[in-house]
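Reader question, answered in our methods column.
A reader sent in the components of a multi-part assembly and asked whether the whole thing could be modeled at once rather than chain by chain. We filled in our standard form and ran it. Here is what they sent:
COMPLEX SIZE: five components
ENTRIES:
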Amino acid sequence: MKSYEEEFRELERQGILFTTLEKLIAWGRSNSLWPVTFGLACCAIEMMASTNARNDLARFGSEVFRASPRQADVMIVAGRLSKKMAPVMRRVYDQMPDPKWVISMGACASSGGMFNNYAIVQSVDSVVPVDVYVPGCPPRPEALIYAVMQLQKKIRGQARDASGRKLPPVAAWAKGA
Amino acid sequence: MRRDQAKAYAEEKGIPVREEHGLLHLVLPLAEFKVHMGAFKEMGFNYLADVIGVDYKDYPEGTPWQHPERFAVIYELVSMPGFKDGDGSRIYPRVYVPEAKPRLPTVTDLWPSANFPEREVYDLFGLVFEGHPDLRRILLPEDAEGHPLRKDHPLGETPTLFNDGRYIDPESFRAGLRGKDKGLTGWRGGRRKGERR
Amino acid sequence: MIWALFVTAVKALVLILALLFAFAYITWIMRRGLARFQIRLGPNRVGPFGLLQPIADAVKAIFKEDITVARADRFLYWLAPFLAFTFALAAFAVIPVGPDGWVVANLDMGVLYVFAVGELAVYGVFLAGWASGSKYPLMGGLRSIAALVGYELALGMAILPVVLMAGTLNLQEIVEWQRQHGYFIVYQFPAFLVYFIAALAEMSRTPFDFAEAEQELVAGFHTEYSSMKFVAFYIAELLHWIVGSALIATLFLGGWDAPFGLPEIPVLWLFVKWAIFIFLVLWIWASWFRTRYDQMIRFAWGVLLPVATVWFLITAYYVAKGGMA
Amino acid sequence: MSVMALAKALGITLRHFFSRPVTIPYPDAPVPLKPRFHGRHVLTRHPDTGLEKCIGCSLCAAACPAYAIYVEPAENDPENPVSIGERYAKVYEINMLRCIFCGNCEEACPTGAIVLGYEFELADYRYADFVYTKEDLLVDTVGSKPQRREAEERKKPVKLGFEVPYVRPELEGVKYE
Amino acid sequence: MIPEPKELRTEEMLLNMGPQHPSTHGVLRLVVRLAGEEVLDVVPHIGYLHTGFEKTMENRTYHQNITFTPRMDYLHSFAHDLAYALSVEKLVGAEVPERARVIRVILNELSRIASHLIFVASGLLDLGALTPYFYTFRERETILDLFEWVTGQRFHHNYIRIGGLKEDLPEEFVPELKKFLDTFDHRVDDYQGLFVGSPIFEGRARGVGVIRPEDAIAYGLTGGSLRASGVNYDVRKAYPYCGYETYDFEVPLGERGDTWDRMVVRLEEMRQSARIIRQALDRLEPGPIRDPNPHFSYPPKELLSSSMEALIFHFKLATEGFEVPPGEAYVPTESARGELGYYIVSDGGSLPYRVKVRTPSFFNLQALPQAARGHFFQDLVAILASFDPVLGDVDR
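And here is the structure of the entire assembly that came back:
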């Protein structure tokens, strides 16, 4: 059983991954990330603020916050996810067409943050595979924009984690989900 | 002032009254609770601002407050200023509910605004309001177990993770504050004032 | 005969390509333009001035998973975006962009054709709402049908005085008439107003964009559509806007005619006039609210239709008296 | 006049159409932060001796409402001290995903060792990469972990995306260029 | 034989709106019973953002809890900080210096303006107008910048301390604030120009979602939604705190209690808040910003190196917090959404025994079915927006 990493490298060597077409697709995908409106709590306000005139997420082609998950590419989980909400969120995620990405925005979504209690899901990673985490409570809009840029890098296959491992373009694919 | 009126009423009916930090607390007996609440409504307390549930299980003895039963439900009644002849009086009638039979009558018929908060008390404390039109869980999922604001319900914390398997377990970390253990902060502890053994 | 067919085909192809290109860049114009109204920059990071943004969007959409909802009526579900797209595109065929020959199909009943095709496009919306097997799209589809009943009559009534005055249903000839006598916006200002307002409804733009009202209906009739099917709707919607603006420019603003005695260049002048209306619609979009659909229908029946009818009668009387023939 | 009101709305939007956009194009232009902004923590050193200010007292950990700080103290070697006091922090870790950047740690610190800096570009891909160790936090380190990783890949210095009018005096010895 | 024509059958539709829906202002779920597009009944289902604040706050010290309070109502977050501090101050008997009170008023009103700006933005967005959102967020960014100058955070401030404030205002704050106030009134005129008087807005908002004063009282409305119905109840006037009784401001009232009134009342409240801030700015005299009582205030950092006593107090406060005498206290305050107060039960320890938050949105939401019945589905969204619910405030 080859590890994902080895397979990835092999495919890359053979030129199957990241051929010109793949590059074009990755370029298209990374520059047209339409988020689904999934605002939960405080971070949702900063998510709104990231689209406002000052920060203008639209510059990255992500202005079209789609209300329908069917037309969205990335889910920004903005805020604390309660256990009552978790199934709903999974459902919204399942309704999104592949390939899809998840940005876990803020401390509460990423780790439960300060709400370490009976009501809050500790890390949305236990519900959906997360591509990018954004620390902060709430993160500045610019921090979210930085996260979107990080995600773009990931989609283009340029992302590495701290140990230097190359990351797959979509987190959901790596886990065999 | 309706506040004085309510106080006079309480003295007349033999209801214990307690004033503290500017709040007028009235301890209503559970049996005639509804009668007295109706009287307050008659008196002109037209607005129910809040319904507060408290679980006095761990409340230490030796404080000025004595609590005969485990649960208390505190109502906040206001004579709404700016509406008709409201004068802004506030009273805090409360009723103690025994643990063995956690039931009390609803006041939604007197103040419709009691609907949500009574459901909340039901949800978080497990007190049943008899006669409530729609008594379902409100904040927690329908299938949740337990009533989280009861003192014996755990907070349900998960440890914070760090490198190399190090972690902080919040409960033991905080134990020093509870006066039970010295905890991970290294604080030597000392009994929490008022803590019941 | 064959040669003529060939020419028409080439013209159609050129037009379709031009329209698709226009579509791609109208999204860019729309996003940048709206951004200006909203004191921000808009897409500017993909290519110079964000000019590659529509291409990125297209690439993404093509390689996106195509979902067919389990409860959908599969055939209609597939047909709806196709209908909406095709008819939106087909409407442009009769709009002249220059003097003789600069039109795909110089129909004698051009005006009728535009109306017929425009109404068929609503079928796409309605079918989409019905076929999705879901409640929000259904409501969106119903709203679009209800609105159609409202605005379509006013639209027709508003165009009649123009037809009467010009004495033809051929769009090319209507332009010719305007070249000789002056633009209809001058003679027919009330008709123009009614037509413009009703056209906003036909293009389903603010203040009449309730068929896909994002705030209450999630995404309206195309809630359940993803990938290219959604893009087809998206294109159709914008094509309505493009075609609608071009049609107003043709009917009331002299079409491809060069104003103020400026040199005549095919396409250019229609483009300029078209751009005016594109901007106008964008401007209104940025400034106003969405009406409630029953209010819009009441407005269409109670205000637009009577005004158009009265104006039609006045024009008819005037023409019958022999004026301007 | 109702029609006038509609025209007025058109006028207001048109006026804004011709005014300057207020967007700050973030990755290209630095974000103007205010001096008190709460960003990534910094462990400061004494300016004269270069010793760490942190004495491993764990007050920050105790004050933290999210329990995001882990401190393990050790006795200083008197010959070759690490910090100014008797003890120093052998392990000092902050879980950045738990952290809510409230500043309680800074307020609780008796020696002014832990200070909230300005860096907000912290978004990263993996949960495990968000534990910032002492090395990541000490004053000489510029940039967050993903930023430094990227800088290393590109062989360029870390580019920070913000500017401040002046650096707070508490951030002794911290240099943001 | 011709078959009998089938009876024309109509059906009521049950529509599940939310919990993830673009205009539910968060994670509210409304089960709507519709006849065509007419709303027959609405049942709000809440709790999708239930965070367990009250239980968690029982397990944090009084000092740590200041970081929890703003996260309930993330729009008018300062009001929560303030309401919490006022209740605790009542329990411990803290004396708040004058300067701290004035600064609290300034920041509270700024935060209120920021909250109302979002209200206008989202309310008009729900009516289909895109652009006001961008204009109001421009001002909101300016306000958040002001907060960043003072507290270092954009809206979860952690700036109030029991008995005062964390630190003094920076020098730049007052001139920046004055600059903001100079332009603010014109900006409010702009927002007003975008919708007030517009026939489309009139059509959507006039006479829609009417709440009569009696109903408003019965269903527990407070704040702008109550005042839109014509009931003159503002906690700042009725139960003054922080010295609000000394400020000169008006309480805007509505007449009909419809969506239109609820919108315009809040617009006017922004002007009044700006007026309060102007008055407060004149009163800003130098002085202490914290009750110096070492039992609940951190000693100044400079003292730590010189005074052993200060160091001991500092350690004690940081590790175990301060002990609050047993008792129960409640101070009503006016948040952007209505009456807000913390009912705190203390058992004498350093962790609160019970914290009950009387959040206005929780009560306001009860009036929604009453207001929405009989209107169009399209209006339901506008009515909901006009109540200005914040789901963090509802679910806690």
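What stands out: The longest strand of chain B covers residues 47-55. DSSP finds five helices and nine strands in chain B.
Send us your own complexes using the same form.
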